[in-house]
Structure formats: C-alpha cells, structure tokens
Write a structure and sequence with these properties.
Elements lengths: L2 E5 L3 E2 L10 E6 L27 H12 L3 E2 L8 E5 L4 E6 L5 E4 L2 E4 L1 E7 L3 E6 L4 E4 L7 E5 L2 E6 L8 E3 L2 E8 L2 E7 L5 E7 L2 H4 L2 H4 L4 E3 L4 E4 L5 E4 L1
Parallel strand pairs: 2-20
Antiparallel strand pairs: 1-17, 3-6, 4-5, 5-6, 7-8, 9-10, 10-11, 11-12, 12-13, 13-18, 14-15, 15-16, 16-17, 19-20
Length: about 230
C-alpha cells in the first residue's frame, strides 16, 4: 500500500483550523424605515410626493415588513457574515469562523476550491477567499499565495510534470521515482502538500530524505510548528 508523507505548506496565521461554526445574533436595526421628507427640508422646490432614494437596508426592512419574512441585506454581506432584516425591524447577523464567500465582479459567490487550468501554465481554484495559483508543470513556482498585498512563493526543487486535476487536488506524478506530489487547496487560499510513496524502493531513495522545498515571502515572517505546518504573518 502506498505511504503518504504529509508536508503541510503554508497556513496563514489567521486561518482557523476548526470547522466553521455559526454565530447568530439579533440586533436592533439602526436605520429606521425610509419616510417622506417634507419639501421644506429639501434643497430647492420638490414636486408633491417626491421621496428621497431609500438605502438598501431601508428597502430590505420595508420588504421584510410587507412580506412578514426576513430579507437579506446584500449591502451588509461580508466574506464571513450575512445580515437579514426581520419583520419586527431588527437585524439578524450570521457569522462563520472562516470566509464562505468572495466578491467577484461586484457579486458574492460561494467559495469553490475546485481546480482548473488557466493561462500562463498556471492552475487556479474556481473561487477562494484569497488568491492562489499552482503550477501546471515546468520550472515555475509550485504555488503562489497572495493576501493583503503580500505574496508567498513556494518552489519545488526540480521541474514539475503536468498535474492531473481532481476537484481540489492537483497530482504531480513521479516528482521522484515512485513518488507523487499531491497539492490540495482548502478554499481559503491555503494549500497542503502530500507525498505519496508507492513502494519500499521509492521510500529508500536518499533524494527523498534530502528534499528541500523553498519559500520566498518578502515582508513576511515565516514560522513552523511541531507538525511541520508553516504560518506566515506580516
């Protein structure tokens, strides 16, 4: 049976390793429903019945009151929380421990770690909380992780073969004789690498023991824990 040797590369310092748990709270709405503004309070003369434009929150509150059902306030959505206006003029905010969505072209989309091929011999996930690209083979970096203007580059010591993509995992076959490299994206923009050693001969290869993966992270501090996981922080 193949042996799996885990090499955990890199984990951001702010990444929580717990499964996302919900924290739900109800708060009083801070913005009252939109109301008619007297013409005397408006600049210049106003036509009878003219109303100022209502905010997204006010519109959601009005819709919730009219339908007797909670209405999502899309303008208050964040990567790790959603807010709903309730019929009783309160707001309910639901939070997760990790981001579950990301903003794409002014729209929120759910995170999707499935990998696909892109331009420039790079592999990218469909949607992650932070940008991530993987190698599609050759001499470029194995992985490039970006967050808040910082970049972490992970480089394999030898040219990489073209990977096979299966969901959130890219498999680079025979990076050493009888050894496959698996790189798995977690949806947050972090990766875990695994070496799959197919037989005893491959396990005895001295190149396996001396394998060195390099990391470059200008402006960041890297640290390693007892499990071999790397974290990076500014």
């Amino acid at each position: 049976m193949p042996t799996r040797a885990f090499m955990r590369l890199p984990r951001r310092a702010l990444t929580c390793l717990l499964a996302p748990a919900l924290a739900i709270g109800t708060i009083a709405a801070t913005t009252p429903p939109a109301h008619h503004t007297p013409a005397a309070q408006m600049h210049g003369r106003a036509h009878p019945g003219t109303r100022p434009p209502r905010s997204p929150l006010a519109r959601a509150q009005a819709q919730a009151s009219a339908t007797h059902h909670p209405v999502l306030v899309t303008s208050m959505t964040t990567p790790d929380s959603v807010t709903a206006a309730n019929p009783n003029s309160t707001l309910t905010q639901t939070e997760t421990l990790q981001p579950t969505r990301t903003l794409r072209h002014s729209m929120w989309v759910p995170l999707n770690p499935a990998l696909r091929r892109g331009p420039g011999r790079r592999v990218t996930p469909v949607a992650t909380a932070a940008p991530l690209t993987l190698s599609d083979g050759g001499t470029g970096p194995l992985a490039v992780l970006d967050e808040n203007g910082y970049t972490l580059t992970v480089t394999w010591p030898t040219p990489l073969p073209a990977p096979t993509l299966d969901g959130d995992t890219a498999t680079y076959p025979d990076v050493l004789p009888g050894v496959d490299l698996l790189v798995t994206d977690d949806g947050q923009g972090d990766v875990t690498t695994t070496l799959v050693i197919s037989n005893a001969t491959a396990a005895a290869n001295p190149a396996l023991a001396s394998l060195q993966v390099s990391e470059s992270a200008p402006g960041l501090t890297l640290s390693e824990d007892s499990w071999g996981s790397l974290t990076w922080a500014a």
